[in-house]
Amino acid sequence: MAMILTEEARMVRDSALGFFRERSPITELRKLRDSNDPVGFSRALWAQMAELGWTGFLVPEEYGGSAFGIAGLAQVMEAAGRTLTASPLLSTALLGACLVSTAGSEAQKSDILPALVTGERILALALEEGTRHAPHSIALKAQKDGAGYRLSGRKTFVLDGHIADTLIVAANTGGGTTLFLVPSTASGVARTRLSMVDSRNAANIAFDNVAVGADAVLGPVEGGAAILDTALDYARAGLAAEMLGSANEAFDRTVQYLKDRKQFGVAIGSFQALKHRAAQMFCEVEVTRSAVMAATAALDQGGNDAAALVSLAKAKANQTFFLCGNEGVQMHGGIGMTDEHEIGFFTKRARVAIATFGDTVFHQDRFAHSMGY
Amino acid sequence: MTDLATFRAETRAWLEENCPPPMRTWMPEDEQVAGGKKAVWKRPEQKIWLDRMAAKGWTAPTWPKKYGGGGLSNDEALILEEEMQDLGCRAPLRGMGLSMLGPVLLEYGTEEQRQTHLPPIIKGEIRWCQGYSEPEAGSDLASLRTRAVLQGEHFLVNGHKIWTSNAHHSDWIFCLVRTDPTVKKHDGISFLLIDMSDPGVRPRPIRLISGASVFCETFIENVRVPAGNLVGELNKGWTIAKRLLEHERKGIGGIGARQAAKFETPVEQRAKQYVGEVDGRIADASLREKIAAYNIDAQAFQLTRRRAAEEAEAGQPPGPLSAMFKYYATELNKRRYETILDVEGFQGLGWEGDGFNDDEIRLTREWLRAKANTIEGGTSEVQLNIIAKRVLGLPD
Lengths: 373, 396
Description:
The complex is a heterodimer. By secondary structure, chain A is of the alpha+beta class. Chain A has three domains: about 5-120, Butyryl-Coa Dehydrogenase, subunit A, domain 1; about 125-225, Butyryl-CoA Dehydrogenase, subunit A, domain 2, CATH 2.40.110; about 230-370, Up-down Bundle (Butyryl-CoA Dehydrogenase, subunit A, domain 3). In chain A, about 50% of the residues lie in helices and about 15% in strands. Chain A is built from eleven helices and ten strands. Chain A has helices spanning about 5-25, 25-35, 45-50, 70-80, 90-105, 105-115, 225-260, 270-300, 305-330, 345-355, 360-370, and strands at about 125, 140-145, 150-160, 165-170, 175-185, 190-195, 200-210, 215-220, 260-265, 265. In chain A, strand 2 and strand 3 (about 150-160) form a beta hairpin. The two termini of chain A are about 30 Å apart. By secondary structure, chain B is an alpha+beta fold. Chain B has twelve helices and ten strands. In chain B, the strands form three sheets. In chain B, strands 1-4-5-8 form a four-stranded mixed beta sheet. In chain B, strand 6 and strand 7 (about 215-225) form a beta hairpin. The radius of gyration of chain B is 22 Å and the shape is globular. Chain B starts with a helix and ends in a 5-residue tail after the last helix. The interface between A and B is large, with 39 and 46 residues.
């Protein structure tokens, strides 16, 4: 019964929906944007989210987490997507927790995970280097230097990179990818905050001969690609859940507008040209929901079809969020073009979320590859 | 073992024992068994398989035993279906009696109507067809004009039905007829069962773009129908009509998940044959992407069907999901055939004769047949209207 929520997951969903609706409606994202907030999310909100246990869903119990799983965390992500909440859920509670939990040494886990769970430690994965998601082409060099390494190169589109305490850097060590834990304050690290169209956090980061010790290596040397593949799948599934929430919200708001807005003396939702498109959006939201549920369940159960299902879910989430964001603006008409109205925030977020960890073409190709064609 | 596990084991054993090997092969469209007095048996095993399944009532697994049905619970019926699918067993019998009329008679029919009509449906002795659409009543079905006038113990029926699937192979027709032309169109319709052996009922096959003639137009001229053949109340036929359409859409919505799934060559495998492969991948990258996009949507839809089934199994009230099945499944099916034709290139363009193999000719014909999927049983546009109204609550 992977396709219906467990009682616990339902409780998480309900409490998360209530939490985000009350504490971080879209007006909060607007405030962060308009005040050019240096952090880019609310630390107070993040502390409350940590208190609710959401930061520990992917962290083992001995490090302060609950190991509740990705299907549970997806409920939180989806609810956060409903209100376009800016928070380090993806960078830290998902990717950071996943990478350190699965690949970290005892010392690394003890150092990072308890502080991650309490919300004090923010992590960021420094992965991308080009113009699109390419987890297997890493040019940033890590050269052996005595017992340690020296890192040189550039990373881009690092989510929460400007504010993270610890960077997880994917580096090329000659024979493959190796992951490094690098303090963001290390000498030679230069961070440039990016101002993104969705008002969320990302940074470009330059590494100029940054020295790290041997104990900074996360997981086996040159074993980074496999670790990344797994962790990225968790991130893609969680992001797909967030996108599902955002798409569903844009869709719900648009259907409501079709009922409220009157032209020619009637509700515009009585026009078949709009009805049919609304009904098509409904179908796409529902099949996307099924895909996200199947993907998160497969990850939690360790199914060998998980990678294919994750790509399926991210591809569908990409298409559906794109559809609902754009149709949302179009069906709102002129008011949908204004900054004052909130529907435009969805279409802006859609573009960024689609590009994050694989666009539709990337995941179609990966799906085909994993299905043997 | 639990009761269900025992049932599964026994069912498996029975199927292995009783399903003739030729009935465990892929079933071409022209080997579907629909029964009736005019049935043509292409292979003797079709009849053997039908009779064995009918004897157990498993042609209609969930119908009550007293009418000859299987009397199975939904869980047991699902197990039977799963085991049949696993062994690749063909459906022993298909048709509108099983999929549409039977469920309606169980809900609205009199005891006498059930006793009369259900057993021959289950045994495949009587084949039914559907008299719904008329030349002037397509999507606007309720504007139908076939007249039935009650004269003592009989209705006198006159009219013209169209898209009556397989009427020329059928024995009986269930019809929507106008019994009161003076009231609002939905309030003057009745649901009538008509014996087609009456010479006043004349089906004429219509040749389709696929070259096949599965549809007919059916003329009904001065046919006297016993008053006892009225299902439900006089002038209350629209409710039954809608109910039956739900059953019809469920049937059409299941298209992608048929027995064919076990035997049909996946599109990607065909693509490797037709355009070649490089390092185990389809050589043409844009075709590969197109196929992946189709497969992703098809799988997301299958997952949605599973979600609806799990929700039903868990006792949750039927959600809005079922409203989308007919629309989504039929659009996908059309897309599947378009993708196959893209894959085949020139070889997908043959009509008959030399230069094309049987499989290629069959797929070309099925590609054209699939065009009807989004028209029959309520067009895609009508389905979208239904979703907009019932699920989204958008105004008329």
